[in-house]
From TrEMBL:
One of its GO terms (molecular function) is catalytic activity. This is Condensation domain-containing protein. Pfam families: Condensation. Residues 4-52 form the Condensation domain. It comes from marine sediment metagenome.
Amino acid sequence: LSNEYKIRFKLATGPLARFVLLQSHEISEILIICHHVICDGTSLAILARDLLLYVGDPDRKVKEMPEPPLATPDNFPIDIKIGKAIKFAINTLNKKWQKSKVIFDEEDEDNIFRAFWDNYNFKIISVELSEEETSNLVENCRQHGITVNSALNTAFLAARNSIRGPFKGGKRNIMVPVNTRKR
């Protein structure tokens, strides 16, 4: 999985999604890697669910969905708010770039992508919970009003700190997905 992240999507030519099948005699797993311009985590979860439903029942009728409209300022949800500081930064950069006609092309994107992966490293740890452990975790999170994602991130950070101590320099980057739907 960590190698798949380092393969850049070509926005101009595609594809913007990759499916990787990992097979062994004991288990098979499919990795679905998509560029964020075509989906988000929830979309991937729905895609994985639907894929598994159809693999489990090949005779299942495929429900065709209409093609969604392109996102434009005219059909963008009006209830999504951007903070004043972010809006100011975006407007300032837009004005600056408009004056100098800054255009990011494929080469720029490739350079940014390479620079990111030359300076960024991460590890993926796979932990599998039993059905009972998963149910208990979800129920405890509901009772305490937190997301499962927040509980898992907190648990992993606490475990890491107890084993290795605080992060060097007191700094750490924690990436947490945020669901902006229904807000």
